[in-house]
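Fig. S4 source data, part A: sequence.
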Amino acid sequence: MRVLGVDPGLTRCGVGVVEGVAGRPLTMAGVGVVRTPADAELGHRLVAIEQGIERWLDEHRPEFVAVERVFAQHNVRTVMGTAQASAVAMLCASRRGIPVALHTPSEVKAAVTGSGRADKAQVGAMVTRLLRLDAPPKPADAADALALAICHIWRAPAQNRLQQAVAAHRTLKGRTA
């Protein structure tokens, strides 16, 4: 399974590609950040993020895209920018027919470190260890994108089984109605 993880942000949108399956060693296929100038017009920034994500999709051809689920923050301006960048990533993937999964920050932290309250340094250290890298990816947005991809690879089999069970239940329920 090849997953593009996206840590959405208007100034720095982390992107990372991880390959592998649950229970086996994982491999990093690429990591980086799509950057936009803070003083640029919002529309231009969103187009730049779209172009950057499209390049990553072209180059790495992921089977899935995992995006950090936007959560409520005290700074409305920050959460709006994050939501807008997140929507661009989801649009780019969906336009190509690539399934998109959303994971909360605490889900990602718990999957990678064992604690949903882990700090950025702990996430970076575990990503480095799990992918057998020489050093943690910089900036933290890049490490977070890899953590999202890892989280999805590890959680996808269970999520798929749950979705199949729900679908089967609905089918059975429809037959008995």
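Fig. S4 source data, part B ends here. The beta strands are 2-7, 12-19, 27-35, 64-68, 100-103.
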